[in-house]
Specification:
Length: 181
């Protein structure tokens, strides 16, 4: 794979861009990065955390699993996950940096009411078995780690480098790369 673009994303900042079918988004970070995606053909079709949980029978997305849209269609697939074994990504939590995500998605006229819940990359959460409470687990990547997401359709993706002081070190840049065959 060849690098098409590379972007350094400072803490608290958002980025959006196009990801063509077959291209791979590599996210390298030490802190939480929120991810959402929209179909470029129909922005009313967007990533849905609930359907992704249902179709994968898993609340923690992992390597080889697909990300699904609100319309039940596969949008992308996790093809590499260096965080596996060190922690888990999160499909349970709302946006921690929603204002930054909305700013990144301004061209789509997305409002807070229709902002989909994100895939929280590197957001290690636990669910207490006794009462179902969700809480951050104090586990950040020990060094920059990467996750790669391959687009199955043409996408508009948006990400926010959103460090959470409970789960990740503050003030660390994330690196976003778009790769193509």
């Amino acid at each position: 794979m060849n690098t098409v673009t590379e972007t350094v994303l400072p803490p608290g900042e958002a980025w959006h861009g196009a990801l063509g079918a077959g291209q791979v988004l590599r996210v390298t970070a030490e802190s939480v990065v929120d991810f959402v995606a929209y179909s470029r053909a129909d922005p009313a079709e967007y990533f849905d955390a609930a359907r992704t949980r249902i179709y994968n029978l898993n609340i923690y997305p992992a390597n080889g699993q697909r990300l699904f849209s609100k319309q039940n269609n596969p949008m992308a697939k996790i093809v590499r996950d260096d965080f596996a074994g060190a922690g888990r990504h999160d499909l349970q939590s709302p946006h921690s940096c929603g204002a930054a995500m909305l700013k990144a998605l301004a061209s789509l006229n997305v409002t807070a009411d229709d902002l989909p819940d994100p895939l929280g990359l590197f957001r290690n959460m636990t669910i207490r078995q006794s009462d179902g409470a969700i809480a951050p687990a104090p586990l950040a990547p020990p060094a920059p780690m990467s996750v790669e997401i391959e687009a199955e359709i043409d996408l508009l993706v948006a990400l926010v480098n959103c460090p959470d002081p409970k789960t990740s070190p503050p003030g660390r840049d994330a690196v976003l790369e778009i790769l193509a065959p």
